[in-house]
Design a protein that fits this description.
Layout: H1 3-11, H2 29-51, E1 53-57, E2 65-70, E3 73-78, E4 83-85, E5 90-95, E6 101-105, E7 111-115, E8 121-126, E9 131-135, E10 141-144
Parallel strand pairs: 3-5, 4-6
Antiparallel strand pairs: 1-2, 2-3, 5-10, 6-9, 7-8, 7-10
Helix pairs in contact: 1-2
Length: 145
């Protein structure tokens, strides 16, 4: 399957402890790099992911956005609702949706950077305006600080 499909599966397990049942040395390079990126991300943010306040929006829409927040830092995964708002010191958003963009609301003047599903940087800049549309591919991430 595609590396984006691998990333999509990993967005679904971010808020627990990922268990990998693949033979890592047999993975295609792009799958390995995607897995490594997500596991590195999980290790770096595990305190937020496991110990933070977990909220899941819209059960009628199969929980289209999930957020874990701890001490003003948040990790959010968007599945269908790609509009992210909130006042966080630091924010990481994983794109688990079919859309290739994320809207950031009320974050004008903040710095951001985007990564693809393998952790390669795509762009960086400063958010301008009240509602910013940022291109984030499937399985990619955006970081706001």
């Amino acid at each position: 399957d595609t590396k984006e499909s691998v990333a999509y599966q990993l967005t679904s397990v971010l808020y627990g402890v990922p268990q990998i049942s693949m033979l890592i040395d047999k993975l295609p390079n792009e799958h390995y790099r995607t897995l490594k990126h997500y596991l590195d991300f999980w290790r770096e943010h595990r305190e937020i992911l496991l110990d933070g306040k977990l909220t899941a929006q819209s059960p009628e829409s199969f929980y289209n956005q999930v957020c874990s927040c701890l001490d003003g830092e948040a990790v959010i995964t968007v599945y269908n609702n790609n509009v992210v708002c909130g006042e966080y010191k630091k924010l990481a958003v994983a794109n688990g949706s079919e859309y290739e963009y994320v809207y950031l609301k009320g974050m004008s003047g903040r710095s951001y950077r985007t990564l693809n599903c393998m952790g390669e940087e795509l762009c960086q800049g400063t958010l301008e305006g009240n509602l910013c549309e940022i291109e984030v591919p499937l399985g990619g991430m955006i970081f706001v600080s």
